[in-house]
Amino acid sequence: MRLFDPRARQVTAQQARRYAMFEILHTIADVLAALLFVVGSILFFFEQTQFAGTVCFLVGSLFFAAKPSIRIIRELWLARSHKVDRLAGRAPEGPPMTDG
C-alpha cells in the first residue's frame, strides 16, 4: 500500500471511523492554529499584550506542525492495519481473503 494514495485502499467500517477521527483532529488543529494566529496578531498591536501575542504565535505554530504529523500517523496506521488484515486473512481460522 502506498502512503497517501486513496485508490490503494479497501477501507473497513472501523478504518473509516478511524480515518474520520484523524480528519477531525486535523481540522481542529487547523482551526486552532488559525485562531491563535489571528488572536496573536491582534494582541501584537498593543505593547502591553505583545508577550501574550507571541505565546499565541508559538502555540499556533505548534498546531500547524501537528497537522502533517496527524496525517502521517493516519497513513501509517492505515498501512499497518491493511497488512494486519492480509495476515489475518491468511490464518487458517481467519476469514477468507477478498484482495490479493
From TrEMBL:
It comes from the Bacteria. Residues 21-75 form the YrhK domain. The chain crosses the membrane at residues 21-45, 51-70. Pfam families: YrhK. InterPro entries: YrhK_domain. Keywords: Membrane, Transmembrane, Transmembrane helix. This is N-acetyl-gamma-glutamyl-phosphate reductase. It comes from Brachybacterium vulturis.
